[in-house]
Amino acid sequence: MFRTLLAASAGLLVSAAALADLEPGEAAPDFTVDGFQAGEPVSFTLSEALSEGPVVLFFFPAAFTDGCEAQAASFAESIGEFEALGARVIGVTAGNTDRLADFSTQHCASAFPVFAIADGMMGDYEVRLLARPGWTERTTYVIDQSSNIVMTHNALSPYEHVDLSLAALRTLSADE
User: Fold this and answer.
1) Burial code of 23-41, b = ≥16 C-beta within 10 A, e = fewer?
2) Residue 155: what are its φ and ψ, rounded to 5°?
């Protein structure tokens, strides 16, 4: 039995490592997604948005879950700081996508759009939540105007994503 548990644990570690995040310096895959801002339908294409400034792309497991509500509220409370740095914030999820219109007003305070994940994005951005198939990990990427990843943060806790994103944007701004 011990060998069976050990083999199963090793298998999980290997599969988790195979789904490592995109790293700083890697190119961000382009995508187009549909979703909501302030309860209204919107669409977003990364390559088009990058012509206006950097993008903070945060993936969250599911709308209307406690951690995701806290994370969305944190980004909404800090939206002025992101805008002052010329960055656009968007949230993307695979969980409870039928409720994104309400989530965009209630927890995002209509400050930024939230989108249902597009086909292929889970693999492209390596955000498949292993513990809950069909949902996305809590991973944040800061993407510069050249479409390069400049920051990656993957943590189940929703509380550091905003601060780390702002720090990366400040560094990016200072380097320009």
Assistant:
1) eeeeebeebebebbbeeee
2) -155, 135
Residue of 14, 25, 17, 46 lying closest to 120 (CA atoms): 46
Query: Using one digit for the tens of pLDDT, what is the confidence trace for 112-166?
Result: 999 999 989 999 999 998 888 889 999 999 999 999 999 999 998 888 999 999 9
Q: How does pLDDT run across 17-27, given as a tens digit for each residue?
A: 334 589 999 99
Cα→Cα distances 106→13, 47, 124, 164, Å: 37, 28, 29, 24
Chain-centroid distance of CA 43 in Å reads 16
Instruction: Give 153-160's long-range contacts (Cβ < 8 A, gap of 24+).
Output: 154/21, 156/67, 157/67, 158/60, 158/67, 158/68, 158/70, 158/71, 158/74, 159/70, 159/71, 159/74
Which is it for the CA torsion 49, 135, 76, 37, positive or negative?
positive
Phi then psi dihedrals of residue 147, to 5 deg = 75, 25
pTM of the model: 0.86
Contact between 93 and 59 under an 8 Å Cβ cutoff? The reply is yes
What are the pLDDT digits (tens) for 17-62? 334 589 999 999 999 999 999 999 999 999 999 999 999 999 999 9
For residue 111, what are the contacts with CB-CB under 8 A and spacing of at least 6?
75, 76, 79, 89
